[in-house]
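#struct-pred
JK: can someone run the complex with zinc ion? inputs below
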Amino acid sequence: MDARTNPEAPPSPEHVTIRREDYRPPDWWVREVALEFELDPAATRVRSRLTVERNGDHDRPLRLAGEELRPLAVSVGGRAVEWAMDGETLVVAVAGDAAEVGTEVDIAPVSNSALMGLYESGGILCTQCEAEGFRRITFHPDRPDVLSVYRVRMTADKARYPVLLANGNPVAAGELEDGRHWAEWHDPFPKPSYLFALVAGNLAVLRDSFTTMSGREVELGIWVREDDLPKTRHAMASLKQAMAWDEKAYGREYDLDRFNIVAVDDFNFGAMENKGLNIFNSRYVLADTDTATDSDFDSVAGVVAHEYFHNWSGNRVTCRDWFQLSLKEGFTVFRDQSFSADIGSAAVKRIEDVRLLRAIQFPEDNGPLAHAVRPDSYLEIANFYTATIYNKGAELIRMMRTLLGDAAFRRGTDLYFERHDGEAATCDDFVAALEDASGVDLSHFKLWYSQAGTPRVSARLECDTLHLAQSVPPTPGQPDKAPMVIPLRTRLIGAAGELGEERLVVLDRAEQSVRFDDVPDGAMLSINRGFSAPVVMHVERAAGELEALATSDDDPFARYEAIQELAYRVLVEGGAPDALVAAFGATLTSNALDAAFKGEALTLPSEALIAERFERADPELIHQRREGLRRAVGTALAGPLAEAQAARAAGDDLSVAAKGVRRLRTVALALFAAGDPARGAALARAQYDAADNMTDRQGALMVLAGLDAPERTAAFDDFYAHYREDPLVVDKWFALQASAPRAGVLDTVAELRTHPDFTLNNPNRLRSLAGGLASNHWQFHASDGRGYRMLADFIVEADAINPQVAARLVPPLGKWRRLEEGRSALMRAELERIVGTPGLSKDVFEQASKSLG
Ligand code: TRP
Ligand code: ZN
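RT: done, structure tokens with the ligand placed:
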């Protein structure tokens, strides 16, 4: 075993592991930052003046982080001084306890393909600083516990960059004689460097205003390319809804006179909460019914709310260090989930959130990249913007709310914001505020922050006694686990449907028994209702129980769960489909259930989720079983499915009910087509042709994508011809083809790789094709390893351009332990090839080497 594949071998010298236990307060504070930008795409001059203050009694020099920067000048108190570089860090000796430190650098936004720091996207100059991008703009401590008041002056060519934006409020602007102009912005709220932002470009704006609960007027602006202006109305409406919601739900009011959102096409993530100047991936801003699906509309609302909510959970109270990332992300995801539940269907939102958690976070927790919600170490922080930090982190907040109750939880968050406003805090601080406001002891609960892995809980009802047991599997670096605190909303349901009291059972030992009074006749266990804890449940059930719960459980999530479990019996155990077909039929024709819920309930577990239930999966067998079940359902329920498919809602009706009708429509179409591919293809083509909205159109196209019918190519050609000028829709065109469950799709991906519209430089486009491929369970896992090779090629090529985005494509290859041996070896070989690539970034190195571990 050579050094590259031996997990015990030290990583290469430039890859330094950062540890949580090494945290020390900063040697120097930076109280004020004054920045001057002479903006130019090829050479931007950045002058910085930092007002620094010694922290404590020490004689250490000022150390300022930089990345790919060369100091042109360094001064202290206005006088040029000696300086030294320690690697990429600028070291300046400062006499006395306070000083003004000046630096000057040149940076080149056009050649910044990593999209961190100052870069260009479609002619717009913009920034992305979280987590450590500010050091690519200027020398600075660049750590989140150093908070400063920023003043920013930008100068730029007026014709090319007529709009100049930065954090906070505009204070002055003017013209220069050479066709240039300038603007100055001031942000009165001390903030960490990762929240710095500026934007310069030829942008159009949708303006609106919001009156806060204390009567202050806030000017809102959404800035986009002129042509995109008609697509900003939904984002604006969502923003105003989010502002009102945060006042009502958390008592949080906006604090500046301005709130601006800018959309750019090239962006590593979804969006960024820079103070007063959120910058978004355009896919989470732009939406109209011709080009965006209902799900896209929901994502826009969710992400706009998420970034807005960060103004309190993230900006007013920020993170002490990056190990505390879930302090802002877990809490803010929980807040945006609650918001979306309140403005839409709460039951369906919960089902969607749990589906995502199980599809992404559970496998992460179960694999080589498993880490705690508050990790202990990392090589590259960008790799820790994970489903564990975000989505499991949100589940932790949800569980604490369940344990405290709504009122005490709210007192706790009020206390948290009051105590830590203007500070950089820790996850412990958050929990302490909840404890102090409620009197509830959460010390045992806090294991959820430090212990990785998804708990397994088994449950068995014996007469009036519920027997529970839990175990947490070992994860990398954590071989032994202690029992966790697991809140389980539980109810007993009688054979005739009579409902017992709902109880909160808190499992906090390895084994525990709980007695119930008033046990209804033939009681059935409805447990982990609403998915009150992010665990894997094994419930021992009598024959016929799941079938009964699938039609009688009063908790929509638990009912959905019972139907899913019926499906797994067929898909994992190879059982007969009859019970599932009956449950689907009853659901489909029920008058009590709404269409949105029906759409969720009739969606079979994905092949990836089915694979998670096998110790070692055979993707071919899983595909065949799932297709067989889809065919059985489609044949048996052809009548009611065709009826559900025929129901339409007006394309511009975005009500919860109309979205539900459309969701069910395509789910029904897909099942119908599984039973009768020829008629299904014709029906799909008809749905495509008649569509007055993207939801119906994309749904039809998705169904056609998996069929070997002449309608497929014709529809894809038509779609491309119609939308080729719209990058977000072209992304859909790439993704739908790459993720199609169709033999021969790897040839299609290879062809699309050379399509003139394909580029590795745009993260959305790369994710559409490479991410689409990786999500195509059956074809990605082709037994000859071609899918693995193609993904590894994407990763290696993209790494030279954008390490963060390349690294996020690695995890699918890390599932090698969970596949049958032939595929397993092929996956490992690709990971080894990646790790052995000369000049690899530390982003990809960390993900690929840990995936081998
Ligand atoms: N804080 C952002 C969010 O969750 C995440 C983010 C945006 C990000 N851009 C990034 C993280 C770039 C890492 C790198 O809303
Ligand atoms: Zn966030």
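RT: quick notes.
The chain has five domains: 30-309, 317-450, 458-473+484-533, 543-675, 724-853.
Residues 346-365 form the longest helix (20 residues).
JK: thanks, will look after standup
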